[in-house]
Structure formats: structure tokens, C-alpha cells
Amino acid sequence: MKPRRTRPDPQGDLFRPRLEHMVDPSHELVKLANRIDWQGLEDRFEPLYTDIGRPAIQTRMMVGLTLLQSMYGLSEDDVVNHWPENPYWQHLCGATFFTHEKPIARSGLSKWRKRVGKKGFEQLLEETISLGLQFEAIKLSSLERVTVDSTVQPKNIAHPTDARLFNRSRKRLVALAARFSIGLRQSYARKGPQTVQKAGRYAHARQMKRMGREVRRLKTWLGRVVRELWRKLPEQDADAQMELHKELTLAERLMGQQRGDRNKLYSLHEPDTACIAKGKAHKKYEFGSKVSVTTTNREGFVLGMLSFPGNPYDGRTLVQALAQSTRLSGVRPKRCYVDRGYRGHKVTKSTVFISRQKRGITLTIKKELKRRNAIEPVIGHLKSEGRLDRNFLRGLLGDQLNALISGIGYNLRLILKKLRLLWLLFWIQTFMSSQESALEPANQTGF
Fold first, then answer.
1. Burial class for 177, CB neighbours closer than 10 Å (0-12, 13-18, 19+)
2. Which of 130, 369, 390, 416 is the most exposed place for a label (fewest CB within 10 A)?
3. pLDDT in tens, 387-439
């Protein structure tokens, strides 16, 4: 059922003070809560609910928890557990009185993410851009000059090795067989982990022939389990056949892939994970998805975050990145600054300047082209302070949502920093004016 609308509650309580009387009006979270268009967000998310069933949690509560999670880079458990301890968090989420109970169950946030999807989180990113313009964290003219770059969003998986993947696939198949009461001639539950240990020790000692022998042994055992389950598959019911068929297909794909193949399987629970080479000395390969980041050239404010499955060429992602920036900010970028990895792009509606470009460069464009490198620390903050360094959300939808959550949190942190700076300037001006007023009587008396 649709959530209840957020309405001001004038009714007081004799034994509980209202939150608006407890919090400091000059606090940045209070100012942020007063500027967010809660009514507009409720109008956007209301069509996602049906008219039957139990009333859903209020939209302001879910949006507020999501904003807090993105601002501080917290997990669902952390944001739900810490919410009863902070009155400013409760005020942001629309609570009238201070409460000591948890607002929702931990799974409520993940279910809400799936309900609103990518479009809903893009609307939240659009709201942060609107807030940035209101608080003058960015200028309207800055939306016409953007910088685009790509990075890798690593997935929450173990480092893929053949021995580990073969053994893991066999364990998953054996667990499914036990779940559906399918008898196996041999499960290799004891010998499998021992062989994985041997393969790891041989690899550490650079004894590659012995390591290869253990890996082939694990692959042989996996093949035996796979063939036995294929033979017994027609005897099972529809649900068992569907789950076993999916897992057996993954196992056969794993056994059939070769070293030089493309679109290899690196994780069984995240089969869409790609291997992306970044050329870094400390980390040559990263396993996850490619993310395109669009920021303003002047302030480094995030205007777009897009996740792409696989490992597409950067030049082919630029059209979609600029289209998302135009859709969210309402302004089409006139000039776009990229690195040399974007050569061969197909952008026609904006002028694209590539790093080290010499033709058509004026003094203003030269300064803005030097500012292109400023997107690198932005990506660093997205990874260190946000959630872009390790993606714990599942599937392709999780890749898209995690990238958007990182961008939302980065923009909100910039806005809060701006609000703290404005409050400090206001305090300094008040202090200086009070000092001047105190000196005026002394000057009038001649001292």
C-alpha cells in the first residue's frame, strides 16, 4: 500500500520534547532537511506502490536513511543501529519526537532500493544537484563545462583462481543435491579442501607443474559431480530442475573456459563480474564493473554516475554519460574534458577536448583542460569515503545503484562542508561586529 504523506504534527506531548526544540537550527543537517523537496520526492515515488496491503514506511524516512547511508558510507546495519542515537538524524528523517527504537528492519532498505531502482536513485542525485545550486556549492554556468572519466568498481568477491572456483562450484552442487535429497556416489567433501590447500602451497613455492596437477584433479571431481547430476535431473520436480540447471550451466561454463577467452567466469555468485586491467603497479587487474563519473570542471560536483557491464571502451560510454548529465542537471554540457582513452568517441552535440590536444585551444580552454586532472581526487574520495571501493550490492542493478549512492554521498558531503563554512563566516562576522560595538562607547568618551 502507498506510504502515508508527511504532514506537520502540531500535537505536543507532555513528557517528550519535540525534536525541533532539541536540535540546533544552525546545524548543517537541520538546514539540509529544511531545503530538501520532500513533497516532490513523495510525488515521484508514490506511483511505485500499490493501493492494497499494509501501509508502507513513509517516503521521507526511507529517503532520509538512504541519504545518511550515502553521506557517511555506512552499511544498512550501521545506519539503522545508529539512528536512535542521533537526534539530528531523526530530524532529517521526519521524526516528530526523539525515539529509542529502530526505525525499520535492516532488510527494509534493500527492498526499498529494489522498488525504486535506478530511476529513483537518479532522482535523488538530481535533488542533490538542485541543493548544490541553492546553497551555491556550484554555479549554474558550471553545468555547461564538465569532466568525464572512468574507474573500476570492484565487486565483493574473493580473488578468482581456478582451484578455488572449481572447488566452490562442486560445493554448491553438492549442497543443492543435499537440499533436494539427491544421492551422490561421491561428494569429495573431504578431499576437495585439502587439494585446494595443496594447490595454493605449490603456487606459493612456484612449483607450477604440481599446482597444475592438483587443479586438474579438482576439475575432474567437478566434472564427475556435474555428469551425475545431469543424469538425475529428469527425475526431479520443476523447482529443483530450474535451480540445478542454472548451477550446472555455470559449472560447465567454468570447466569449458580457457586462459585467453573473453567474458570468463570469475565468480559463481556474481557471474557478471568482469576483469579490468588498469595498468597500476600495485594492482594490475580489478574484478568488478566499469563506472563513468561526470563532474563539473570547476567545483568537482558530481553530475552523473553510470555503471556499465563488462569492460566497454571508454569512448563508447561518453554519449550515455553526457546524456545522463543533461537529464539530471537540465543543462546540456557545451564543453567536455576527457583523457586520451576517449579518442574515437561519437559525441556530436557537445565539444569534447582530449588531454594534450593542441588544436582549437584558447587560454580559457587551456586552463579548464588543466582542471581535468581534478577528477582523479574526486574518484579517490568516492572510493575512500563512499562505497565505490567495494560493491556489496548484488547483480547488475546493484552495480548501478552503488555507483549512484557514491555520487549522492559525495555531493551531500560537499554541501555540508559549504554549510559549515557559511556558519563559520557568519560567526566571525557576528564576533567582529560585537567587538566594534563594544569599542564605540569607549571612543565616544575619549579613552
1. buried
2. 390
3. 899 999 999 999 999 999 999 999 999 999 998 887 666 667 676 777 777 76
